[in-house]
Amino acid sequence: MREFTPLDGALLVDKPQEWTSHDVVAKVRGHFRIAKVGHCGTLDPMATGLLVLVFGQATRLSESLMATDKVYEGVMRLGESTDSHDADGELTGSMPVPPLSLEDLNTAASPFEGDQHQIPPMVSAIKIGGVPLHKLARKGQEVERQPRLIHVYSYRFHEYEEPFAYFEIACTKGTYIRVLAHDLGNKLGCGAHLTRLRRLSSGRFNVQQAHTLDKILAWTPAELAREVIPYLKLKHAA
Question: Which residues are catalytic?
Answer without folding.
Answer: 44
